[in-house]
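Subject: for your reference before the review

Hello V.,

The reviewers asked for a structural picture of the protein, and I figured it would be easier to keep everything in one thread rather than splitting it across files. Below is the amino acid sequence we used in the manuscript, unchanged from the supplementary table.
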Amino acid sequence: MSEISDTRRTTKRPIRWKYGLGAAMLALLALLSIGLTRDPGRLPSALEGRAMPEFEIPVFDQPGTLASADFAGQPLVLNFWASWCVSCRQEHGELIRLGLLSRAKGSFQIAGINYRDDPDKARIYLNREGHFPYASGYDGKGRLGIDFGVYGMPETFFIDADGIVQMRHAGPLTEAVLAKALPKIGVTP
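And here is what came back from the structure prediction:
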């Protein structure tokens, strides 16, 4: 009996676990390399290819309402922003530039949606960073954000003249992002 147990102790274990570990490491590296080549701002949206949700919400800091019907027949850039959003500060200048371009061209519209924000903090934010040259709606409880599937700030939706969402961008808008996104809604950057 002791000879048998001695034999088991001296027999080398199969090294199959090393092959399994090696295969797992290769799979992990493959997943990481795929993930690193993708644009982190380009996230699929259930709304892409579908009509934008209809809405009518109060205009931020002014009387009146902002409604989806106001944008019928023209391409629309709809940007969700908030004063508590650090990345919103990064894109703020680009949004002002885009708003001025929209006014000058008249071939597309842009609107903001102030999302789940304290109105006083949003006012301070706009006074510090600069007011947008276009209207922003106020989505204080985040209901419209839910309809659009928003989960982080900032997010921007590019909607064509037929009201169809052509693209969603998560993260700050840049000149490069706009160069890709605006043609999707028939707008020359």
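For the response letter, the relevant points are probably these. The CA atoms of residues 73 and 154 lie 25 Å apart. The chain has a mean pLDDT of 89.

Happy to draft the paragraph if you're swamped.

O.
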